[in-house]
Amino acid sequence: MNSLHKAILICTILFSYSTFAQQVMKVDTLSGTELKISMDQKLVSDFDKLEDFCEKASSNTLSKNISSGTTKKKIYVADRALTNAEICRNNPRIAGYKIQIAVVKSNDEANEVKAYFRRRFPRLKVETDASLRPNYKILAGSYFTKSSAASDLKSIRGEFKSAVSVPYNIFCAEGK
């Protein structure tokens, strides 16, 4: 009976806490998206004070920089889609795709497959990934999307039937 009273007390506390929280609408500062957040009124006032403090601090810093002759770097949000060069400038490694040619058991086999691949496809960069030791993955190319890898994958499948495109972190400058 005592445990039943404890369970009822815990449930009452949990449900009463959720009734005191209120739905708050905030506007995202970068994109203007409305965000719905459930939180206590005290948290809302604390967040508002913190935002006011940050705004005052940034305006004071900006006025000090202007008076001292230095300018503060501003962050601009583009109103258009970014080009690949702009993306690469900020993120040298990004999530992309590579073509997995084969998975072999030894480094010697991997080197043989790479040499054969280089003779057949000299314009594609090939590399070995040893993260699955004792197995070695042989990967070729660097692509931003799976569809951009499709044409090379089709020609590679003529020689390597098990070739597939796989998600992989690529160097942005090498991507197609």
From TrEMBL:
<dbReference type="GO" id="GO:0042834">
    <property type="term" value="F:peptidoglycan binding"/>
</dbReference>
<keyword id="KW-0732">Signal</keyword>
<dbReference type="Pfam" id="PF05036">
    <property type="entry name" value="SPOR"/>
</dbReference>
<feature type="domain" description="SPOR">
    <location>
        <begin position="91"/>
        <end position="169"/>
    </location>
</feature>
<dbReference type="InterPro" id="IPR007730">
    <property type="entry name" value="SPOR-like_dom"/>
</dbReference>
<protein>
    <recommendedName>
        <fullName>SPOR domain-containing protein</fullName>
    </recommendedName>
</protein>
<feature type="signal peptide">
    <location>
        <begin position="1"/>
        <end position="21"/>
    </location>
</feature>
